[in-house]
């Protein structure tokens, strides 16, 4: 009986530590300058996460993860915003849009609040020009 109680206590402590790490990670990612909540659809399902601008990349961190590394990374010069449309999301405090994007020949959809996608478009447009400047809608 005593071993079972110790095992339950150890499991509870481990669960609390994992939950604390999970919420600390979300808090740290959400407080970065240039970060925004979004979802990515690149295949069969939507994945929720937090995107973060760096100088040359857009990094995407999945919400349900403990990893400190981005699960996806798109180079600024190779990312194109092809089309954009507004979407109705009931109960969401601000308007949400979907941006159809292309990266190295593969398309995906990025869904985020309008202001975040405006910032993404500005970030893409602000890249120093070169002969491979992309299309931006």
> What is the succession of H and E elements?
HEEEEEEEH
Rg computed from alpha carbons, rounded to a whole number of angstroms:
19 Å
Largest sheet: 7 strands, antiparallel
User: What structural class should be given to the helix and strand makeup?
Assistant: alpha+beta
Helix content: 25-40%
Walk across the major sheet and give the strand order: 4-3-2-1-7-6-5
Shape designation:
elongated
| Structure annotation, total helices | 2
For the residues shown, what is the average pLDDT?
85
Distance between the termini: 65 Å
Fraction of residues in β-strands: 35-45%
Blueprint of the fold:
Blueprint (H helix, E strand, L loop, with lengths): L1 H29 L4 E7 L4 E8 L3 E6 L9 E4 L3 E9 L8 E8 L2 E8 H12 L12
Antiparallel strand pairs: 1-2, 1-7, 2-3, 3-4, 5-6, 6-7
Keywords for this entry:
137 residues; alpha+beta; 7-stranded antiparallel β-sheet; 2 helices
Question: Can I get a quick summary?
Answer:
The protein has about 140 residues and is an alpha+beta fold. It is built from 2 helices and 7 strands.
Describe this structure in words.
This protein is α+β, with helices and mostly antiparallel strands and 137 residues long. Helix content is 30%, strand content 36%. It contains 2 helices and 7 strands, in the order H-E-E-E-E-E-E-E-H. A 7-stranded antiparallel beta sheet has the order 4-3-2-1-7-6-5, sandwiched between helices. Strand 5 and strand 6 (96-103) form a beta hairpin. The longest helix has 29 residues, at 2-30.
């Amino acid at each position: 009986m005593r071993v079972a109680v110790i095992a339950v206590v150890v499991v509870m402590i481990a669960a609390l530590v994992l939950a604390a790490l999970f919420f600390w990670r979300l808090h740290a990612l959400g407080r970065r300058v240039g970060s925004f909540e979004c979802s990515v659809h690149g295949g069969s399902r939507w994945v929720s996460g937090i995107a973060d601008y760096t100088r040359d990349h857009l990094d995407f961190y999945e919400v349900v993860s403990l990893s400190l590394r981005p699960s996806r990374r798109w180079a600024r010069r190779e990312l194109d915003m092809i089309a954009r449309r507004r979407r109705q999301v009931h109960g969401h405090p601000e308007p949400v849009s979907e941006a159809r994007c292309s990266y190295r020949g593969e398309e995906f959809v990025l869904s985020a609040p309008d202001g975040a996608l405006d910032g993404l478009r500005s970030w893409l447009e602000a890249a120093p020009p070169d002969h491979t400047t992309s299309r931006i809608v």
